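Sequence in, structure out.
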Amino acid sequence: MGVMEKIKEIEAEMERTQDNKATNYHLDTLKAKLAKLRNEILVESVGGAGSGGGEGFDVVRLGDTRMALIGFPSVGKSTLFGALPATASEAADFEFTAPTCIPGTMRYKGSKVQVLDLPGIIEAKDECSI
C-alpha cells in the first residue's frame, strides 16, 4: 500500500470517527500518522533533507541550541572547532578537512550548545576532487 492510499485510509477513518472526549486520543494518533505521511511526501518531492536538491546532513539535535561554523575552505573552521571545549575535529594543511558535517557539544554559561563543523562552501563542488 502506497503513501497516498494510507493517507486516504486515515482521512476516511477520521471522518467516520465521532469527535468526543472518548475518541480524542484515537483522533490525535490518526492526526500524527497523517502528518508523518504528509512529511514523507514532502521529503520525497524535495529530494532529501535540504531544499536545494543536493545532499543534506541529518544530525541528531543535542543540547539547548545549535550553532554551525559556515565559511569558505581553509579559513579555520575546523581549527576553531577543535579549540572549543569538548569538541574534536581534524585540522590539516589542505582544503576540505571536514568532508561532511561533524557535530560536537560544549557548555556555555550553563547551557549545552551543539556545534556543527560544516564543509567549506564552494561553487561547482561536483567538479572538484576531494
